[in-house]
Amino acid sequence: MEAFTTLAECSKKEIHRRKLEEVIGLILTKMVNKKSGCGMNQFDLGFNPIPAIDIRALGMQREQKVRL
To answer: Residue 6: CA atoms inside 13 Å, Cβ hemisphere, count?
Structure first.
């Protein structure tokens, strides 16, 4: 998002502004929960929300392997 914004601002090209608008539309229509207004962070290839990976559990598994 930040990269597209900077690109559109610096280049002043219509294509970059249009692509920025596409990214904004994608975020608003697919990546924000309609009820809560909060952003979701993980999706399948069709941009359907999927349960978030518990990063803490992954870290614990790694620590257990290191100890063995």
So the answer is: 3
